[in-house]
Design brief:
The protein has 396 residues and is an alpha/beta fold. It has two domains: 122 residues, Nucleotidyltransferase, domain 5 (2-Layer Sandwich); 204 residues, 2-Layer Sandwich (Nucleotidyltransferase, domain 5). The protein is 40% helix and 16% strand. Strands 3-2-1-4-6-5 form a six-stranded mixed beta sheet, sandwiched between helices. The protein has a six-stranded mixed beta sheet with strand order 9-8-7-10-12-11, sandwiched between helices. It is globular and about 55 Å long.
């Protein structure tokens, strides 16, 4: 069974092709195009690359194409993509304007190009759907809740991968299996041992922190849209509900312009005034730029805030995991986030931390009660696994 996972951006197409033959998981091919202006051509070029590499002879070999979709109205989980689901995604374009429109366009073009190949979506909200109701609810009237104003959460594929892999590293195969079967069992599967408590820190161009109990999310820092939670690269993150109308009135802005500023000129870019890239901001901070240093401090403070929240809700933690581009590569930010937490049993090993970059490693000190891991995420593999499971479920 060969499953192609397509990651569609506003100007990019990236892919990974997985083969699940003989109960194995093999990555056959990966690639991508930037600065895409013609998605039809990009899809053709993707298929040409796969054929050139002898990964497939024709698209008829593909059992499915999987997509790491973000959010849709009243739809979550792993589902077949049809007109109903595409319309549900369209209904929430305003919540994910940088993600939903290009995905909808790309999905329609894939459907035209290979109409006999199933197209399957794994929504980023899926991993958080089994969190306690109190973690999903905003304190808004029922009429608001009924139109979807609630905490949806995102980065679900990444946090699910961390739930599985961290359990394996902690020798809790019962929890790893529960995490793998989470959607099949609707979150209801039991485990045999003591509770396993993990705090997953997906830190990158967009960031979120999730509390994970026995392989399932108990809550996450992102809320109704990817605008929320930690400060993102150029998106504001959490903001008081009264800030937007106040700024609109005081600065004389149209609502649309204010939203644009919050999503394009906010976050790390807004605070630093330098860049939306942590690497550039870190470089500027090292040269004495006070605003760049402040941006990093704001990011670290927000990460610690959410880690602290889930540490309390979980009654401690067995592990804290850093993943995604910033989490996997920026030792100085990992150190800052874990600084002065010895009384909580969290102690980083400076030498291990500084020598770890984009590779799986344990970076906690030998006497740290809480294990600290760096685990490179693999969202595409999670999408492929769930697409495979969806196909098998439909077959059986």
């Amino acid at each position: 069974m060969k499953i192609l996972v397509a990651n569609i951006g506003s100007t990019s197409l990236k892919w990974r092709l997985f083969d699940f033959a003989n109960n194995a998981e093999r990555l056959l091919h990966k690639g991508g195009f930037e600065r895409v202006t013609d998605y039809s051509k990009a899809i053709e070029d993707c298929l040409a690359e796969l054929k050139k590499a002898n990964a497939i002879a024709s698209e008829s070999e593909l059992s499915a194409v999987g997509f790491k979709t973000v959010i849709a109205k009243n739809v979550t989980g792993c589902v077949r993509l049809d007109e109903r689901v595409l319309q549900a995604m369209t209904d929430y374009n305003g919540l994910a304007p940088a993600h939903n429109p290009p995905y909808i366009t790309g999905i329609k073009l894939f459907a035209q190009r290979m109409p006999s190949v199933p197209l399957i979506a794994l929504f980023e909200t899926a991993f958080h759907q089994f969190a306690p109701e109190a973690s999903q609810r905003y304190a808004v009237p029922d009429s608001w809740l009924n139109i979807g104003v609630r905490r949806w959460g995102f980065h679900g594929a990444s946090h699910k991968f961390i739930a599985e892999r961290s359990a394996e590293l902690l020798c809790r195969l019962d929890v790893a299996e529960r995490a793998r079967q989470l959607y099949v069992n609707n979150g209801a599967a039991k485990i045999s041992g003591a509770p396993l408590r993990v705090i997953s820190c997906h830190l990158g161009g967009s960031s979120s922190v999730t509390g994970i109990l026995n392989g399932a999310s108990i809550g996450t820092s992102m809320g109704m849209s990817p605008q929320s939670g930690l400060p993102q690269n150029n998106r504001v993150g959490d903001l008081d509900a009264e800030a937007l109308p106040y700024a609109v009135k005081t600065l004389g802005l149209a609502v649309e312009e204010a939203q644009k500023q919050l999503s394009k000129q906010g976050g790390l870019l807004g605070v630093s005034g330098v860049s939306n890239d942590v690497r550039d901001i870190t470089d500027a901070a090292s040269k004495g730029n006070a605003n760049a240093k402040l941006a990093l401090d704001v990011f670290v403070a927000s990460a610690r805030h959410w880690i602290g929240s889930y540490f309390l809700q979980l009654n401690g933690a067995d592990a804290i995991v850093f993943t995604a581009g910033t989490g996997e590569n920026r030792a100085e930010l990992r150190a800052a986030i874990c600084a002065n937490l010895e009384n909580l049993g969290i102690k980083i090993d400076a030498e291990k931390n500084n020598s770890t970059r984009a590779t799986e490693a344990i970076i906690s000190a030998a006497d740290s009660a809480v294990k600290i891991f760096v685990i490179p995420t693999n969202e595409e593999l999670v999408v492929a696994r769930e697409a495979k499971r969806s196909l098998e479920t439909k077959t059986n």
